[in-house]
Amino acid sequence: MRKNLSFLFPLILVMPFILSAQQREILLLNEGWEFSQMNKGQWYAAEVPGSVQRDLVRHNVLPDPFYGTHEEKVQWVEDENWDFRKTFTVTDDQLQYDEAQLFFEGLDTHADVFLNGSRILRSENMFIGYKVPVKQLLKEGENHLYIRFYSPIQLMMPARTTFGYDYPAGNDHREEKLSIYNRKAPYHFGWDWGIRIVQMGIWKPVSLNFYNDAHIEDYYVKQTSVTEQSAKIDNQIEIHSLSNEPAQAVITIEYGLQGNVSAGKPISKNITLQPGKNQLSLPLEINQPKRWMPAHWGEQHLYDFTVTVVSGNREIAKKTVRTGLRSVRLVQEPDEHGKSFYVEVNGMPVFAKGANYIPGEIFTTQQDAGFYERLFDNITAANMNFVRVWGGGIYENEEFYRQADERGVLVWQDFIFGCVPYPSDDAFLANVREEAIYNIKRLRNHASLAFWCGNNEIEEGLNHWGWQKEYPAEVMEAWFKGYDKTYRELIPGLVNEFDGTRSYIHGSPYDSNWGNPEKFAASDAHDWGLWYGHLPFEGMADRLPRFASEFGFQSFPEMKTIRSFAPEDQWSLESEVMTVHQKASTGNSLIKKYMDMYYPEPGNFEDFVYIGLVMQGNGMEESVEAMRRGRPYCMGALYWQINDDWPVVSWSSIDYYNNWKAQHYRMRDVLAPLALGVESKDGKLNYYTMSDYLQDHDNLSLTVQVIDFSTGKRNEFTERVNAKANDSRIVKTFNISALVSEAEKRHTMIHAFLSDSKGNVISSKDHFFYWPNKLELPETEVKTNVQYRDGEYRVTLSSKKLAKDVFVEIPIQGARFSDNFIDLLPGEKRTITITSPALKAADKTPITVKHVRETY
Ligand code: NHV
């Protein structure tokens, strides 16, 4: 055991190649856990990371919570305490290390942890990883860990009793509203798309880390300024020296583009390591950095930075950080309209195209690497460059941000608070403080992380959700004060101290409410005028905010997902099973209301589900396009919500089983890096190019065809157009009356497309003058011809007349379609490719096809 490193120093001269002893060893402690309900003595094998409920399902103690009305059958677990235990072996060699540290990356949530007869930790925050030095407690041979998890419900019940009120936590699906007292994923308590499963357990890995000499506790590659010419970096390093005395050391930073870490000129510094914590700062300048760009702007260059500590000619600690070099800021500046709200990357404004993300599994720990890869495949495939990690979920796992870095997807990061005031007493805020520091430090090296936001909709709730009528003035006052203390003082102070490079807003929306659109000119907005406010889709174009950070529309998931949880006798809107899977109290009536506005009434439940998907897809496309056309006034469209955490009716564009709803295809089209848009206004059709590219695209052709639903093309116009870089603008205007007569509008569409000089179609856009209930859609048969191959079916569709929103279905969850919910023009033939490892040529899995005219 070495406590004093300096004695080795003179040896450097004579023995420059001393072999380094093992400096570090990690013992993973995820295997071999058992758990039991407290005092029941019935022990089950536990999967770690995991949760009690997830394991109880695995052991068939609980039924599949997604099926039928099973949700209620899993609720009892939250009221019980649960014990976890594990035995592990430590060798004599391992005991010789200078330090042994247990690392619990995440315990959910209230837990006492015991090791060999000592209580070593009391945890009360699922978002904090706890490190506990345990060298003195370890012994050679068997060691015993025991964790008692307390019911977050029973533990916090007295808080409610002594407060005397229930917090207005409408998404917390239990009479006693206790979610706010727990620093635990809010969505575990239910949401208006969410099953309630209030979990307990070890939700992130556990390890035992042995160190000699020193370890690097933290390394922040702080980008103080990045321009085309130079990146100025402050390397902030926290080293823990295990020596009892000061020790001489050399610290070196090497860097280079990913995989080429020594490409740059390394920098070194002689330092004296003091016993315990050492904080160092090493400035570094990189000339002509290869800058990280968001998607569609260029490459996502990533650099590796490695810090090495050498003492006594031995490398005693080392750590590598991967990040992209870029500048990023949220620009909120007064202008002629009010105040801007946009993100600037490398000095250029980004139009934010994307969605709000919720955790994709109620059993949070099922979010493995494959999960994140699928999620980001879906984000990238829909041409997004932005995603919001919404405040009702979790601070996401490393893998989330790694994917975002690699794919050029900017991240709006909420702190995890949403839709309800929280306590703000000293103890609560001390816990929040630790949580904020932990997560800022954990995430700050990610190039994709664009800015921080204090919470979701709490100030909006305080001002606009009618709580004043339910709570006395002093409670309201305390909540307002607590709001300022938490989101205007504590958290921004910590962002400034521990990040120091990124923008922060106290909450979203920043200063608006969908009921008062006059504030939209100076804020982001959660514009729920669509949906909650019953506004038509086309109404969104007339009330653009500076940045639409939430807006959305519900749909049922397609039938194959409904079949996974509901037997056929439950296929109706208000059936018992469907009611459990529709958490929004006004959801069904709103879907019906909009369907009455836009569609002939569908004949049966299956058609209702299909029409609902089509309505969501086309309607949301219309809203998003208006926002994108509306730049630079409006600079973002993040719709609510991309995903689901169980099979449910919701605002998502992809269902729980990874089936794209119509909306996701339409988002892909409207968010294409260069897309064609059309606005119908004052008797004119204005065609727009909407471009994210940083270069102008010139010499494009815009072709506009007037098509009768039954007889086909009647007229065609071709124009040369240029698409201006990073901009949306009108490139051609038509008088509608010159294209169609009033009477023709019911059976005529305008099909337009943008093509390059080689004739490749870049983007196309179909314009209908009405929604289907005012159209004269022709009856027509869609013919299919299928080529069956293992892993891939190719479906060729054709129709003599217009077939609107043709939906190709196959009963295989998560199958990918090259396109779907498409308009087949009169006489057109289109081939759609379906891919899935589950597709076998020999099976000839049946494919069904549906279009709008068939539903009435
Ligand atoms: O309801 C859909 C989503 C929620 O899932 C999520 O919390 O932040 N939604 C709706 C709203 N915000 C959000 C807007 N809230 C209100 C609408 C109408 C009346 C009161 C509140 C998301």
Question: Would you give an account of this structure?
Answer:
The chain is of the alpha+beta class and 856 residues long. 19% of the residues lie in helices and 33% in strands. It has 15 helices and 44 strands. Strands 3-2-4-10-7-8 form a 6-stranded antiparallel β-sheet. A 6-stranded parallel β-sheet has the order 27-26-25-24-23-30. Strands 1-12-5-9 form a 4-stranded antiparallel β-sheet, with no helix packed on it. Helix 13 (605-629) runs parallel beside helix 14 (662-670). The longest helix is centred in the middle third of the chain and has 26 residues, at 473-498. It is globular. Ligand NHV binds next to loops.
Tally of contiguous helical segments: 15
Ligand species: ligand NHV
Residues in β-strands, percent: 25-35%
The helical percent reads 10-25%
**Largest sheet features:** 6 strands, antiparallel
Q: How many β-strand stretches?
A: 44
Strand arrangement across the biggest beta sheet? 3-2-4-10-7-8
Q: What overall form do the CA principal axes indicate? A: globular
